[in-house]
Amino acid sequence: RLPSLRPSMAQKEETAEAAAPTSQDGEDLENPGDPKNLKELVELPPFEIVTGERLPANFFKFQFRNVEYSSGRNKTFLCYVVEAQSKGGQVQASRGYLEDEHAAAHAEEAFFNTIMPAFDPALCYLVTWYVSSSPCAACADRIVRTLNKTKNLRLLLLAGRLFMWEEPEIQAALRKLKEAGCKLRIMKPQDFEYVWQNFVEQEEGESKAFEPWEDIQENFLYYDEKLADILK
Asked: With b meaning 16 or more CB within 10 Å and e meaning fewer, what string describes 22-49?
């Protein structure tokens, strides 16, 4: 049995300042008594590793690094957390990771093809993605179509970098994601640390502490500003 994972920064940072119930992403729930609404989770239950593997540390350090120019980083790594809530309020959670090289489709498409078919239509799902870079236009379109037809699914997408963000097609795709209800965010240093602790192999004898790279905060602010401008 795996030990419980601590809540991610993405899930913890939005806290209620008043007694009013909130969803996990911090939004006020119009009808907190509705069992379809996912309530804020203070402590996550134990996870099971769906893929059975963690990212090699060197893959994380290279692929997730939030550099401005991502030379050589030509595939996407997607770490996911799936939380399913039944009408009785019981929560089940699982996590894993996907990468382009191990699937015929892009990582985002692979999630819908390999993970989502096991979803129970009677449950409400909150899915959190930590991706090394934001989706291409085709994957963004698939996400939009899936969200539009899957009413029991909510998606929080945190990207380490923005993929080809200067292209009008990509900017339009990101805006469509927002319009479809996908919560978009750039990964903060704390989010990289969460991925390091929960999705990366810890080699015996190596330090398990996350060591942020020198420009991690500056690059986060750079991409955060670009995304905010695109989504205006």
From this structure: bbbbeeebeeeeeeebbebbeebeebee
